[in-house]
Amino acid sequence: MKYLLLVYHNENRFNEMPEGTRKDMLAESIQLCHQLDGKGQYIHASPLQPEATGTVVQVREGNATVTDGPFMETKEQLAGYFLVDAKDREEAIRIAERAPGARIGTVEVRPAGEISGLPGE
User: Fold this and answer.
1) Where are the alpha helices (DSSP H) in 1-121?
2) CA-based, 20 to 30 A from 114: which of 2, 12, 36, 44?
3) Exposed, middle or buried: residue 78 (CB in 10 Å: 0-12, 13-18, 19+)?
4) Rounded alpha-carbon distances, angstroms, from residue 120 to 17, 18, 117
5) Mapping DSSP to helix (H, G, I), strand (E, B) and coil, where does residue 61 land?
6) What is the helix (H) or strand (E) element at residue 63, kind and residue range?
7) CA 87 to CA 101: how far, in whole Å?
8) How far is residue 74's CA from residue 84's CA, in Å, rounded to a whole number?
9) 8 Å CB contact between 45 and 29
10) pLDDT tens, 41-98?
11) Residue 68: beta bridge partners?
């Protein structure tokens, strides 16, 4: 089953960390992806650009509203994700525990829904 591991952390605190620490965390995330790939569990992963670079699109009654970030006053922002293949929720949680972002923020583990008819299936 596919699981989306959503990594949240405080962007300001992360940016205040020494550059070497941030680079080490990225290298650790890349290493985790390679380990998962070796087990056939890696599907995709990526850090996200800062929240301020995002855009929210809403359509209500046929009218689109486009809002540039930042969006909410929150302590943590969505920072990146891992899309993995795990046999069950417990295995997905064990993978999330290995994500460096779990040490400085939160990793939300969500099962991905399965629908037919998508491209590439």
Assistant:
1) 11-16, 19-38, 89-98, 101-104
2) 36
3) middle
4) 40, 41, 9
5) coil
6) strand 63-68
7) 22
8) 27
9) yes
10) 999 999 999 988 888 888 999 999 998 876 666 788 999 999 999 999 999 999 999 9
11) 55
* Residue 4: pLDDT over 90: yes
pLDDT of 121 > 80? The answer is no
DSSP 100: T
> What's the pLDDT at 72?
64
pLDDT value at position 70? 66
The contacts of residue 32 (CB under 8 Å, 6+ apart) are 82, 95, 98, 99, 100
High-pLDDT (> 70) share of the chain, %? 97
Burial class (CB in 10 A: 0-12, 13-18, 19+), 72: exposed
pLDDT over threshold 80, residue 37: yes
